[in-house]
Amino acid sequence: MSRARVLIAITAGWVCLVASCGFAAGAWALPEDGTLYYTKNNGTPRVKKVEYHYDGAAFSLGTPVAIPVCSGCSLPPGADGIIFAPDGDLLIGGQSQVVYKVSPTGGHPYQRALSGGVAVFHVMLDPSGKKLWGATYTSSALAEIPLSAFPDGSGTTHAVTGDEDRVATLSFDSASNAYYTSRDQYFGTIDLSVSPAVTRRAQSSVNAAHGMVYDPYTGHLLLFGHTHVTQIDPANPSQPLSDLDLSRGIAGCNGGMLVPDFDQGTVDGKGHAFVASLNGYLLSVEYSASRRIADPAIFRSFCFL
């Protein structure tokens, strides 16, 4: 039995969670236990975790648990993007010029670092493991924040130019090449070694060009946005490799056809993806065998979290 930790940012305010969702027998490649961490941008508490379990025949969620960020208080409103720091803490974009550092066990009160001038929604760890990047889709700049800035230090801003000047999310492949999404329709490469950073568009009209992660299991990028999850091979970035289009809806775990509005997502590195929808639902996809996110034969689940 293996154990994994995954994260996902939920930017809708949620008021209840579903205890479990049944999966078809044999849907998941291996039995696995794990923990899913997520944020809420309104309501309290804003940082939570939930255990999940695969037994080879079913997938289930435990009871969500609040992560204590400090004694008797919560994060300020606006918790958004969430990633792991190298030391195991959580790094959370504050939808303001602040990034928070939170112990997933409540081992210390939350810390903060300033972005240097950019409102930070999505946060991305640099391949060096020594700094993070912060972005918001409405700004023509990125924040570069050294991890040594916690607590109470500050990062710097970098202007963005090129084919796009506004970046929603960055991601890095196994060779540390950087990619961006922009304006919910553009995807391409970005050179962060120069200032201003330079974007070079690879694709236009990409419905999923909002959230993005690198998937080490396939070596591909997964993009999340609107009603699409799109898979792109960095070796051929000019066209999608596989595109999951749910614009006609997907059956919810409790019945009915639902149309998602995807924002951000994550992977466990074993062929499983978890994607947050702004309507409070969680898409789970198991693609370990086919390695294609839109394979019609693979199992998908859409449950209210």
Description:
- The chain has 305 residues and is mostly beta strands.
- It has a single domain, classed as Neuraminidase (6 Propeller), CATH 2.120.10.30.
- The chain contains no helices and 28 strands.
- The chain has strands at 2-9, 20-21, 32-39, 47-54, 59-61, 65-66, 82-84, 90-96, 98-102, 111-114, 122-125, 131-135, 141-146, 156-162, 169-172, 178-182, 186-191, 197-203, 211-215, 220-225, 228-232, 242-245, 250-251, 257-258, 262-267, 272-277, 281-286, 300-304.
- It has an eight-stranded mixed beta sheet with strand order 11-12-13-14-18-17-16-15, with no helix packed on it. Strands 1, 2, 3, 4, 5 and 6 form a six-stranded mixed beta sheet that branches. A four-stranded antiparallel beta sheet has the order 7-8-9-10, with no helix packed on it.
- Strand 11 and strand 12 form a beta hairpin.
- Residues 1-5 and 10-28 have low confidence and may be disordered.
- State the end-to-end CA separation: 24 Å
* Fraction of residues in helix: under 10%
Number of helical elements: 0
Query: What is the fourth-level CATH superfamily?
Result: TolB, C-terminal domain
- Proportion of residues in extended strands: over 45%
Could you say how many structural domains there are in total? 1
Strand order of the largest sheet: 11-12-13-14-18-17-16-15
Number of strands: 28
User: Radius of gyration, rounded?
Assistant: 18 Å
Q: How does the helix and strand content classify structurally?
A: mainly beta
The shape is globular
CATH class: Mainly Beta
In this structure, how is the largest beta sheet organized?
8 strands, mixed
Poorly predicted runs are 1-5, 10-28
Mean pLDDT: 87
Order of SSEs = EEEEEEEEEEEEEEEEEEEEEEEEEEEE
> What is the CATH architecture descriptor?
6 Propeller
CATH fold naming: Neuraminidase
